[in-house]
Amino acid sequence: MNDLFQSLDLSKIFLYIPGILIFLVGSGQVKKWMRIRRKGACTYAEIIKCEHIVRKDSKDRNIYNYYDITAEYTNEDGHKEKLLIKSPTEYAKGQQARLYKGTKNEQPFLVEEQELLFNPFELLFGGALLILLAMEQNRNDETAAMVCLTLLLVGAGISLIINYVNLKKKHLVPIKAEVTDIYERQISKESKIIKGAKFTYYPIVQFMLDNKRHVRRCFINSSSKNSFKKGNRMTLYYDEKTKTVLENHARVGVLIGGIIVLCAGLLAGASLIAVGIA
Prior knowledge:
278 residues, alpha+beta, globular, single chain
């Protein structure tokens, strides 16, 4: 048994962890992406009611913090239907929201558009490459490991550049929003090991669009309660073509980062070719 533990190199096992985590996140996002885009899976619903539900324990710690949403939509037969949905995001009465209707085995939910640096398929592919990279490193195959690293860097660089270009082409319209509340989400409870409960804080903002009041919980967040304050101003970005509101616009930093990562990948590839020729 001792010989078994001595032969087991934990450092080699840890090399797989980043790739496995990214692969699992990517696979979950791909599954959700495919569900939402299934024909007839989504429709638009009107928010009829939005009630904030907060429950705390005896030490004033959050147990539940969400919104009970009543949404009304028109089904395939042309009849009005109402659904009760639990959501982490606040919505204004009368606001239009994209609704995933769900199936017999799935609960309906309101679809929140979120701009990501890497799309689900890129995360899936990147996670797989990281796993292969770890495997080749553990096998001491430097050539195969360099190939994986080159593909990973080139792919990440191209993805970041494409992300910038796609957002740049949208010609997003800036919208002024005001922080009206702070949504706190408890991510861990106090225990003998962890001192104090841990929370993540999200700003809830209000803005006007098409002469209607809209409310949304932002995706940006912080572990510090003082990062967002009521009354602070934020800038959101409206895509008139897709009728969606985004939190980020085309950032030059993303473009520069993409170019740097791409160049690093190309240099890695060039060195690989040079070694092969030599």
